Amino acid sequence: MLHRIIKKSWISGNNGDAAASASIEQAVKDCFSKCWDNLRGFTIAPGCDIPVKAPLENIDAYMRAARQCAKYPVQPSNWE
Q: Which percentage of the chain shows pLDDT scores above 90?
């Protein structure tokens, strides 16, 4: 799901498009809000790969949001 949501943003966010970075951060937060309390746990990942031409700003946005959401203790206030 997350891969489908952000795949276009990885590529279309050329030169650090702020809208693309914001949509990536929101997609990560949406994923956490839906999956965080799964009894089997979950792993957040961008998909099989990251496009070679993906702007570093988009990768930074993804990692920033993932770190914020996964901060211990994992709880809804981390992404709301």
A: 30
